[in-house]
## 1
Amino acid sequence: MQESPVESSCPVCGDENSLKMIAHSTQIAYFGEHTQITLSCSTCGFKQTDFIPAEGKVPGVWTLEISSIEELNARVVRGSNCTVEIPELELAVFPGIHSSGYVSNIEGVINRFIDAINITKNQLNEDEKSDLEKCNLLLEKISKMKNGEIPIKLTLIFSDPMGHSKILNEKATFRELSEKEVEELL
Ligand SMILES: [Zn+2]
């Protein structure tokens, strides 16, 4: 384990001397050797984690068409610069200052979407009834798919300009990003 001060200022509070970085090498089951990097700020509590593969970093797009409940168990690594989309649910999570990398499975990714929908729902006020209805419909649709009440049909797309992300499933496809696409995502 290696702890070192960071030259740049905290992206959240702007403190110039409070940011530090901890890096250590770790084995992630099925994904192999990674460097886990955690940035943290002692002033405001900002924290960001990332997992960087030891080899095979190719900026690209991973896509998996999910058509069975079993596929929700497929493992994923999501880098902090990765955009996550599920077009069937009209949902996308774009990277931001507060996005951390994580290791999970597809069900875990969907649960993060459910949390995001619930947060949006709670922020809506009285005159946004149509949005509230849309959130409820989405939550209902996701829960019916997970319960097997309606056939599951979702596409999970990971677009990562750093090449830190991966969907581990034999049906998952990968295509490299062009330099122009990488620029647009960064
Ligand atoms: Zn800070």
Note: The chain has a mean pLDDT of 93.
## 2
Amino acid sequence: MIYDAAVIGAGPAGATFARIAAKNGMKLLLIDGSGEYGKPCGGLLAPDAQKMLACFDISLPHDILTSPQIFSVKTIDLGTRSVRYYRRMYLSMDRKRFDGFLVSIIPESVDILKGRCSAVSRTRRGFVVTVRQNGKDMHFRCRNIIGADGASSFVRHRFFPDRKIMKYTAIQQWFRSDSRTDPFYSCIFDPETSESCSWTINKDEYFIYGGCFTPEHCRIMFEKQKKRFSEFSGIEMNDPVRTEACLACRPEKYSDFVTGRRGVYLIGEAAGFISPSSFEGISGAMMSAKALAEAFENNRGSAVAAAYSKAVFPLKTKYMVKTAKRLFMYVPVLRHTVMASGITAIKTEKK
Ligand SMILES: Cc1cc2nc3c(=O)[nH]c(=O)nc-3n(C[C@H](O)[C@H](O)[C@H](O)COP(=O)(O)OP(=O)(O)OC[C@H]3O[C@@H](n4cnc5c(N)ncnc54)[C@H](O)[C@@H]3O)c2cc1C
């Protein structure tokens, strides 16, 4: 049999595409090779992602949410030792369960396969996809390839090798914590160890410390920064129960976004859809997936690529506007000016 499309990756992008496109009548193979714990993630559902769920008429089961829920971010600059609070309207959730939920609402007509896609070759009538499962290779035929395989996208590398995008190495550690450690959620800047940002978040019985670093010496810088944060906050971080790492894309220009053509399409972070300022990527994953599913519904052949590219232009522009916001977050002197001014900051009660 020939599938209309093989979707590689069942994160928010792949699962959303599969759900909508299958309802529109496409016959799909969804391939995912995620490990036991899923993707390292802060597990924060931003207002744009909540809006997408609202547009899909999807409500979340309560067991996806974690405790505590947060209403603000404590922003800490370890360079200047300044602190400000800003209001945030995120939902804090268990990312693994969230991804599992999105997969659980995919129509049964979609064939879901656990395994890693290791090769894709173009044939005269479409593509042959190779999937490695339990040490064995399986081959499937399809008319289109949907690369929903995240920041280290195999599909992007295979079909668009010259379209490289800047990447950070994200490292996260989980610590068991019996007490609710303040801050519940913080964003940390430390120019001495990273040009990007880090975060702490309390999730159920865990305290998480994570951050994005330039790949060179990332682990050394992570440890150094953790120590500096401990000294600043008094929070001890010993004996992590889990250490996880992955890549995170940072789009800098329009050409960093690759939507695809000639039967190969990219959605979500594989396409570059992630906020360059906050690394929020779930909303862009769902938006791009919806746009591509609709492009398939209303178009044929090369018109699909054109329609999809047009539909996600506002999303690209939103991210490019955020590169300007990024300057005020990541250039130390500008950040210091913004934090010192108190603009948009909130006052909190003394503890
Ligand atoms: C540390 C960290 C924290 C983050 N925190 C947040 C946050 O709090 N909120 C937020 O909105 N965003 C956050 N992001 C960004 C967000 O996680 C991503 O942008 C989002 O998951 C992208 O969704 P996606 O579906 O495109 O890709 P992914 O969620 O990365 O899913 C890709 C899937 O493809 C699978 N895959 C990859 N290669 C293959 C292959 N060859 N064969 C088969 N399967 C494959 C993977 O196993 C994975 O399941 C964070 C990112 C990082 C790195």
Note: The mean pLDDT is 95.
